[in-house]
Amino acid sequence: MPELPEVETTCRGITPHVLCSPILSVIVRDSRLRWPVPDDLSASLTGGEFARIERRAKYLIFHHTRGFLIAHLGMTGSMRIVSPQEPARPHDHIDIGFANGVVLRYHDPRRFGSFHWVEGAVLSHPLLNSLGPEPLSSEFTGRYLHDRARGRSQAVKLFIMDAKIVVGVGNIYANEALFAAGIDPRRAAGRISLARYDHLAQHIKRILTYAINRGGTTLRDFVGGDGKPGYFAQELHVYGRGEKPCTACDEPLRETRLGQRATVFCKRCQN
DNA sequence: ATGCGGACCTGTTAGC
DNA sequence: TGCTAACAGGTCCGCA
After folding, report:
1. pTM summary value
2. If 0-12 CB within 10 Å is exposed, 13-18 middle and 19+ buried, where does residue A38 land?
3. Which homologous superfamily does the CATH classification assign to the domain defined by A4-124?
4. What is the pLDDT of residues A27-77, one digit of tens each?
5. Is A186 noted as a catalytic residue in this protein?
6. Range A142-265: architecture per CATH
7. CA–C1' distance A160–B1 (Å)?
8. Which of A19, A61, A146, A194 has minimal Cβ neighbours within 10 Å of its Cβ?
């Protein structure tokens, strides 16, 4: 389940292997992703090359000679670099083959991911044009959150997971950041002080940055391996630890649901 | 505009 | 042991 650090790690991991090499072939074994893979994806890509790959939110944007490939990894998507001889495994849905002899292979068991081809202004694409700021940008601050939260009754956890507010904060990191900031995930977003939002924004940045740096140690996995950076479950304070003792006060952690997602917090440490 | 539930999908885990 | 059911979660969509 790629969150922002995994997507960033994927971007950095595949970039050196696929940049500036002509695309020779595109194989779509299964076009049934979240949205159907465009029929003409191969025609669009073949013959051109990628000049740059960037991440925006959890999307990967491939700058191509003639346009842009936008890819999302969904819940279970991953990309890895393989040789053309490497037999495709189950759920290996898309291959992009390059003149330099490598294949970029997309793997996605649940098929929640998606591939889009766009020409023209890529950031105007409907999937990208209403996204909030990047959490690691200078634009993302406690003051920004505080301003956007004015008058909102929505639970703060759902608020920070809303991509229109800020991108890239998935369920795991939302749980962890709220614990670190000592904020009850159920609290109404509009009833949190600026000082507390300052702390929350800082913790979101700290946790995401840490995870990205840790992801860097698994970059080699993008060649030949399964391309899955993986989590460091032993470093999570609340996610997946319902009923276990709080790492700060030993009180059993409470587990509930917010927006149909697992929400874990400490009733004593978070309010 | 905001907020919420439903839908998508399948590997893994829990329960009978 | 074998089968079925629940669960996991990012994101878009549609409705209130």
Report:
1. 0.91
2. middle
3. MutM-like, N-terminal (3.20.190.10)
4. 999 998 988 999 999 999 999 999 999 999 999 999 999 999 999 998 888
5. no
6. Orthogonal Bundle (1.10)
7. 18
8. A194
